[in-house]
Amino acid sequence: MTMLSSAPGGASVRGPADPQPSTAATTKRRTQGGVVLAVPALVWYLVFMVGPLVAIFVIAALHWPGMLQPVTFAGTGNVTAVFDDPVFWDAVQNTAVQLVVAVPLMIIGAYMLGYYVAQKPPGHRVLRYLLFIPGLISTPAKAMVFYAVLSPDGLLNGALDKVGLGSMTDAWLASPSTALASLILLDVWSGIGFTAVLFAARLGSVPDEIGEAAQLDGAGHWRAMWRIHFPVIRDFVGVVTMLQFLWTLFGSAQNVLLLTQGGPGSSSTTLSFLVYQKAFIAADLGYSQTVGVVLFLVGLAGLLTIRRVFRQNY
Q1: Is 121 helix (H, G, I), strand (E, B) or coil?
Q2: 72-103 pLDDT, tens per residue?
Q3: pLDDT of 6-36, one tens digit each?
Q4: Fewer CB atoms near the end CB (10 Å): N or C, the chain?
């Protein structure tokens, strides 16, 4: 760029203008600055996220009988031991039942509760807090509540005796036919209220005009809930389903540990509890992390499937 200046005699002289930084150079400097600021987060991610993931696959190929014991290369020996172990297949079956039952019940029930709260019925603010309470209780406290209800001399058996249904009483947490169902009930109870609050918050951001138009067209609450509002927040439902899937898949070990110890037998053993049991009780780290690899692959496949099912169609 040039500038005009006055010369003696009134003539105008064209001179060079002050150099201005180019847009490309400015953008490059900003990009470099952003990369520098992202380095600490990237290092943290590599060390504490990618590092443990790689370690799982490495340890799965080792024979490691305890933290202070000598380590030898096992090759595919751990894989063979895992797939030949009937306890592993019991854990696979229990985990599959838990996911197939608990996650759909939790998501469907939470969505319906969230829709009801989003309609702002009388006392809806208090209801939000009540639904959120299970999410504020620690896992050991929730386990104690369920133990008090489901133990042989607990509240459930006492109530059945009082109404004349004493023949239906059972040791719910110690029976092979009811131990896993009790854990699934705990998963649903502890997660449905928190998830309902999330759905209510998302549904509250849907424009009121959509619901009003549905009412003018004669749509009732059931049709508006599933045919109008659900497609609008379909992507959010997918995200919440992913979270609940992961919490159920990887977090079931704590409830199993506190209530049933995987028993009786292996009737309530899940994959995540099997990882804990083999690592910290049986001191077989190679077996444990081989199951951990299976757990990782199941989680990855589940996330991809849920993402595909709930992706928007427009």
Answers
A1: coil
A2: 998 889 999 999 999 999 999 999 999 999 99
A3: 555 545 555 555 555 556 666 666 666 667 7
A4: C
Distance from C-alpha of 162 to C-alpha of 165, rounded to nearest angstrom: 7
Residue 111 tokens read as: 């969505």
Q: Which residues contact 67 (CB under 8 A, 6 or more apart)?
A: 285
* Closest of 118, 304, 101, 270 to residue 191, by C-alpha: 101
Q: What is the pTM of this model?
A: 0.84
Place of tokens 């692959």: 297
Biggest CA pair distance of the chain = 119
C-beta separation of 241 from 308 below 8 A: no
The CA distance from 312 to 284, in Å, is 44
What single letter denotes the amino acid at residue 90? D
User: Which candidate, 238, 25, 4, places its Cα nearest to that of 111?
Assistant: 238
Cis peptide before 264 (omega within 30 of 0): yes
Give the Cβ contact number of residue 18 at 10 Å.
Answer: 6
Rg (CA), the chain: 29
